[in-house]
Design goal:
Shape: globular
Radius of gyration: 20 Å
Largest sheet: none
Helix content: over 70%
Oligomer: single chain
Strand content: under 5%
Number of strands: 0
Order of helices and strands: HHHHHHHHHHH
Distance between the termini: 54 Å
Number of helices: 11
């Protein structure tokens, strides 16, 4: 790779890093190309050279977030030779690894769901990640049908797991301010919370 390509790659990476921070902080609608350009210290034509529209930039940012999660989640859930309790523990670890670095991600997703769910879904389809969701769903259904795990409506599995994992991050300020005297810093709180997540999900799913 020549110097020009390296510089282009570095600029694109920098743009995406800045855009990701601003999207997570402000949401899609409140983040403008001008805001990203100003934060980067470049002009808008420079941004448009790399990403023609804000939608294209959002697709790249959100697509990278999904790619950091979904393949690992898919591999873990569909590895049905392993006990469901062990897989749940691994799932929590995968999400914690992302959320500790990006604690505002759950709030961002909730905001975007409320603002324009179809836009979020279109981004998932456009980045060709919808097949992961389908495969995960089919794998869980198959385990339920075979009796390996309990027959639980999939929305209830979704609500229970994501409620348990995401709520501490959605209420992080509360946890830090009110609960720290009981459990220490936030990192310590969520570490202590993990076994409860695993126990709750195991109780829900294990036959």
């Amino acid at each position: 790779m020549d110097d020009k390509n390296i510089k282009c790659e570095d600029m694109e990476t920098s743009i995406l890093r800045t855009a990701k921070r601003l999207f997570l902080q402000n949401g899609f609608e409140e983040t403008t190309m001008s805001m990203i350009a100003m934060e980067m210290g470049v002009n808008r034509p420079t941004l448009h050279y790399y990403f023609r529209t804000k939608d294209k930039m959002f697709q790249a940012v959100f697509g990278s977030i999904i790619q950091s999660l979904l393949p690992k989640i898919h591999e873990t859930i569909t590895n049905t030779d392993r006990d469901i309790t062990d897989r749940i523990g691994d799932m929590v670890n995968i999400y914690y690894a992302i959320l500790k670095d990006e604690p505002t991600l759950p709030l961002f997703i909730v905001r975007e769901i409320q603002r324009d769910l179809q836009h979020l879904l279109n981004t998932i389809y456009d980045t060709h990640n919808d097949n992961f969701f389908l495969s995960i769903t089919e794998s869980l259904k198959s385990e339920m049908e075979s009796g390996k795990i309990k027959k639980i409506p999939l929305p209830f599995v979704f609500y229970t797991f994501y409620g348990l994992v995401m709520t501490p991050f959605l209420t992080m300020n509360l946890g830090t301010m009110v609960f720290s005297k009981y459990s220490g810093p936030f990192d310590a709180l969520i570490t202590k919370w993990k076994p409860y997540i695993v126990n709750q999900m195991t109780s829900l799913l294990k036959s």
